[in-house]
Fold this sequence. Notes:
Pfam families: ACAS_N (PF16177), AMP-binding (PF00501), AMP-binding_C (PF13193)
Strand order of the largest sheet: 12-11-8-6-7-14-15-23
EC number: 6.2.1.1
Organism: Ruegeria marisflavi
Cofactor: Mg(2+)
Bound molecules: 5'-O-[(S)-butoxy(hydroxy)phosphoryl]adenosine
Catalytic activity: acetate + ATP + CoA = acetyl-CoA + AMP + diphosphate
Largest sheet: 8 strands, mixed
Radius of gyration: 24 Å
Number of strands: 30
Amino acid sequence: MSPAAQTETKRFAPSADTVARAHVNAETYDRMYAASLADPEGFWAEQGKRVDWIKPFTQVKDVNYNFGEVSINWYADGTLNVAANCIDRHLATRGDQTAIIWEPDSPTEPAKHITYEELHGSVCRMANILESLGVRKGDRVVIYLPMIPEAAYAMLACARIGAIHSIVFAGFSPDALAARVNGCDAKVVITADEAPRGGRKTPLKSNADAALLHCKDSVKCLVVKRTGGQTTWIADRDYDYNEMALEASDYCAPAEMGAEDPLFILYTSGSTGQPKGVVHTTGGYLVYAAMTHEITFDYHDGDIYWCTADVGWVTGHSYIVYGPLANGATTLMFEGVPTYPDAGRFWEVCAKHKVNQFYTAPTAIRALMGQGTGFVEKHDLSDLRLLGTVGEPINPEAWNWYNEVVGKGKCPIVDTWWQTETGGHLMTPLPGAHATKPGSAMKPFFGIQPVVLDPQSGVEINGNGVEGVLCIKDSWPGQMRTVWGDHERFQKTYFADYKGYYFTGDGCRRDADGDYWITGRVDDVINVSGHRMGTAEVESALVAHAAVAEAAVVGYPHEIKGQGIYCYVTLMNDREPSDELMKELRTWVRTEIGPIASPDVIQWAPGLPKTRSGKIMRRILRKIAENDFGSLGDTSTLADPSVVDDLIANRASK
Ligand code: WT7
């Protein structure tokens, strides 16, 4: 059942303690929210002071949402350096404070506590190494690393010298890596020998080797030794980070960057086959990441904060590295998985490091919930003060379990709705301000004006108790600025369908109280374990196989993953369906895209439901995948209605 359809109206009010401690309570929320809309320039000028500027800005906001002329600028004439904001400015007051707690995959390997002083040295060394490899301001560097401290060093080293990083999640295949290296014309790829995860090792360097066969010869590869596992080595292309770090100077002057210089590119799936390179810039992004980190998680000096995401996703960018470090926080970085060595690992780590704020995805909660309460109860979670979720709608069962079993009913839950494109949270309850409802993202963050539009007419639907597509009126500093190398596509994707608004791609409901519930994507993007997957990407991977004539991919409800990947496959005339071929296609998709795109279900489809003009009717395929045969709707416009009966009769079992 989708959260929007459920009728749960129970509210969970914050405790008096939570309200008293909070940066923002109900009264301040209302006042600040009103101020942020009444005078955006004044509001964001004030918030701009959260970061240290080399040259202070005099302009705040310069935004045009008109299709054809879209341009988004914040603090445009200011200059700053992100690494200096995340490290140097803290040295005088908290040089000895832990910046990063690193918890390795194996619980028997010791954790590391990296102080701000040490972080400064390591980032400078990495920055100097990159410069010695020829990286200059504006150049692109691809980071393909496990969750190790060097991933944070690499990001901050790029920021320090003004290079633009593009992180590729270590679960992506060599092909996907090559496409991203070429997509942004990167000079250097930073990788590791191997990535330990859940007791297994992914051979990252050999993946990078395979990828680099499809890239320019000039691309260099900087290799971090994580396990010491064997790798092949190409002289004058591969460089040993650990060796170079011994020699590199531990000082590197931070580059003076314009507020609108790109900070990073992050590829994300859309409704077409090609992932797009989301571009975030320097000033506005940092202000927004820092502000949301402090306020949404009610972060206070001395707190230990843990976000379980991977730096390969935007959550890791904004809420493991940039937001927390800009705030001088202690941020925990975890290399492993929630279920290794057992389903108690998250809670063991929380207890071990006395975590105060814990931020994870609903899919992890659902998986752990299935393992019983014993794994939680074994560990002392008394330091936890706040819980967060992100990535997909959370079902009330998972919410209640999180609240009762993990939070012991005393930790407010922030259900943060946002996107790679938004840079930071756009809607979330604030812990000291709002009584939460399980499954609702509740309220807009400061400066955010959500609107519900009629999907057909594009007209704003006012009032409460309404549902439609979710758009955002006006800009905020953390918003993406363009698609790398394709501003046209940026405008077409986000500003064409509903003129004058930013279109989120999500549906939403505003309930009778005016609180927001995200109902899921309204485009051909599915959400698998909180990861965004374009159905078109999986389809193009499938049809690239010699046996496949045609493929159509849809999402279906999956108990743990939220949505699973359901593939209808039509084979070439001369090929017969078989279990072996099914296995082969699964492996094929994993190699083309990566394990995260692994099909959950493959159904052989002698024909696909198409209109007479040849358009595949996905609505019907979705219904069949959902086992919902009663409401297939009008099938009379199909070129051959009998294919539907065949698909129903042979529906794959899940
Ligand atoms: C899509 C964005 C933002 C970081 C992780 C995902 C869905 C995200 C929620 C939430 C309901 C959510 C939306 C959104 N989503 N958070 N709290 N409740 N849905 O980033 O890969 O860019 O995906 O994830 O559908 O559009 P992403």
